[in-house]
Amino acid sequence: MVRLDSIGNGYRTTMQFQQLQYFVAVAETRHFTRAADLVHVAQPSLSQQIKALERELGADLFLRARGNITLTDAGEALLPLARRILADADTARHEVQELVQLRSGRVRLGATPSVCTGLLPDVLRAFHDRYPGIRLLIEEGGSHDLVRELARGALDLALVVLPLPSPSPALTTVELLREDLVVVSSPESPAPTGPGRRTVRIPDLEGAPLVMFRHGYDLRELTVAACRAEGFEPDFAVEGGEMDAVLGFVRAGLGVAVVPRMVATRSGRGLRVTPLARPGLHRTIALAHRSDVAPPRAARELQRMLLER
Q: pLDDT, tens digit, for every residue of 169-203?
């Protein structure tokens, strides 16, 4: 049985992984019976282990009032630490179980939707061809969400847009590429280039109907900031979509959008692609992982392939 020992304030506290698993299950379900079902243990046994954990810590972790289960301050403090310990243990188990030749294992990779559309398909195909036994678990999300998932141990690697949110957890980042942004429009609705020009200037977007990504999307923040720097607020014809939805709305003629060149190249059917005039807009994609934990071997191999692409 694996135990965690820590010494503080002159006494030793011993916690078991099993107790932390039970605690997290109750914290997430807010119900002892459902938590017991989740971890496949009898409810009385789960309750006894929670009480034992509370005795060892010297603090109640839950408030139990007429079936309403809530976390105490001590429980709130323990929850993110317990999740991280369990995630790290899970990662360690998979690392040990991987075969030397990478015939088995998994990689948990996070990426923004635009990177999933533009960069990843070819790299993941090459990785899968070389290591068909490695499971690829992909999570799409904004950079802020991916940083949070990295910090709690739910991802091995993430492709994020720099700069990272500040303050951010201790992450190691390696710049992967610097990518130009372009304007996409439908063939029937040309981009606002102006007479005699083949490029779009940011001021040309004033008054143009924009198809805009949802809040928290890196491309939305970058585009809106560029418009405001030119002294105007952009007009949204439609907003709130992910990458595929935005491209579909543009193809339907609802407006124009600012997207990465790689996405426009890969998804360009039915779209007119127009460069932005110099200095243009750019974004920097970086590969990130936690600084305090080395990625598993399979993740390190994918990291190498991404950096050498």
A: 688 999 999 999 999 999 888 788 877 788 999 99
Q: How far is CA 157 from the centre of its chain?
A: 9
Question: Is pLDDT at 247 greater than 50 in this prediction?
Answer: yes
Which of 238, 260, 259 shows the shortest CA–CA distance to 249? 238
Q: Is the distance from CB of 61 to CB of 53 less than 8 angstroms?
A: yes
Q: Is the dihedral of CA 300, 302, 303, 304 positive or negative?
A: positive
d(Cα 188, Cα 191) in Å, to the nearest integer? 10
To the question of domain 95-177+286-308 being in CATH 3.40.190.10, the answer is yes
Question: Can 95-177+286-308 and 178-284 be said to share one CATH topology?
Answer: yes
| pLDDT at residue 243 in the model | 87
Q: Tokens 């490695």 appear where? A: 134
SS3 letters across the chain: CCEEEEEECCEEEEEEHHHHHHHHHHHHHCCHHHHHHHHCCCHHHHHHHHHHHHHHHCCCCEEEECCEEEECHHHHHHHHHHHHHHHHHHHHHHHHHCCCCCCCEEEEEEECHHHHHHCHHHHHHHHHHHCCCEEEEEEECCHHHHHHHHHCCCCCEEEEEECCCCCCCCEEEEEEEEEEEEEEECCCCCCCCCCCCCCECHHHHCCCEEEEECCCCHHHHHHHHHHHHCCCCCEEEEEEECHHHHHHHHHCCCCEEEEEHHHHHHCCCCCEEEEECCCCCEEEEEEEEECCCCCCHHHHHHHHHHHHC
Contact 176, 285 (CB under 8 A): yes
What is the third-level CATH fold of 178-284? D-Maltodextrin-Binding Protein; domain 2 (3.40.190)
* Predicted local confidence at residue 217, as pLDDT: 82
171-185 and 257-260 strand pairing: antiparallel
- CATH placement of domain 3-86: 1.10.10.10
Amino acid at 128: H
